[in-house]
TrEMBL record:
Domain Acyl-CoA dehydrogenase/oxidase N-terminal stretches: 28-103
One Pfam family matching this protein: Acyl-CoA_dh_1
Family note: Belongs to the acyl-CoA dehydrogenase family.
Protein name: Acyl-CoA dehydrogenase family protein
Record GO terms (molecular function): oxidoreductase activity
Amino acid sequence: MTDVDFSELHDELRSVAGDLLGKQAGKEIGTELLAQAGWTGLEIAEERGGAGATVRETAVICEELGRAVARSGYLGGVVLGVGLLNLLQPSDLRDRLLDEVAGGTAAVTVGVSAEHRDAELTWAVDADARLRGAAPFVVDGAATWLLAPATRPDGTVVVAAVRTEAPEVTVSDQPVVDETRSLAAVSADQAPVELLEFSGDPAAGMATVRNRAYLGLACDSLGLAAAMLDDTVAYLGVRQQFGRPIGSFQAVKHACADMLVQIAVTRRLVTAAVDAVADGDPDVGRTVAMAKAYAGEMAVQVAGKAMQLHGGIGYTWEAGVHAYLKRATLNRALFGSPAEHRASLTEARR
């Protein structure tokens, strides 16, 4: 774990992000705006137009995006996309993609399915560097570039890069319960691609990409749950029954206390997961699985309880609680349900 205290920097980043997202409430946060805020380039080297920061700062943005239930391509394009690009050997194309992502002129998506915790590679490139294969439920699949982890004829794994507008590539929107997320079925049929090599072991690289996905979703779930608790407490302080605020009733206080405890436990797990990913902890897989499993389940429970505590108005479209509950429900399912992650933890202990 790092000895440097970045809490003040993170507090400022959190405050700026909250202000920006508050002004964009209800709107899609486009690639250009994300780049203008400096968020797409957080983990991109300064010589490539980025900030040279770490996953710790990316995690702060993920939490704030969850708090605002903002629609953006950040999970697929930055948490996964930039994370993958940073694991590849330097090349003209890789460097150009980092430049364009940092500048907001392009967005990338990683061709991995978010349907399950672990998934086999479904892409292959032939000797002529042509890509074939498909992946369902690709997060932010309608990006500028597709980065598809693919198997060569000799069995080695590389990353095939191709523009999604290529005639041999098909991107089909897949509607899901949460309208703030964009998922797509992506396929390619003999698409000519450029190949990018991993700097290290490809299997370890893909594990890192998935760990980043688990972490990003855990941070998002933490943010939306914290927002639900804040909103609920504020509502309970003004809604009156029998001549006093309903927040003064003991049963209501207990419900809010339970929500607070769940969020506090989640924050500890998420903080440990952020440190594990940032520091390259050998036990990172277990740490992020714990955070993803607990945060996903917790957020659904907190959002559901918030809807109940809001009473009848909580079930209306205008209250907005439904947006948090839907996002929490999808976060719980993406890249593995809590049951899948707990099963992996149990298996690892044997």
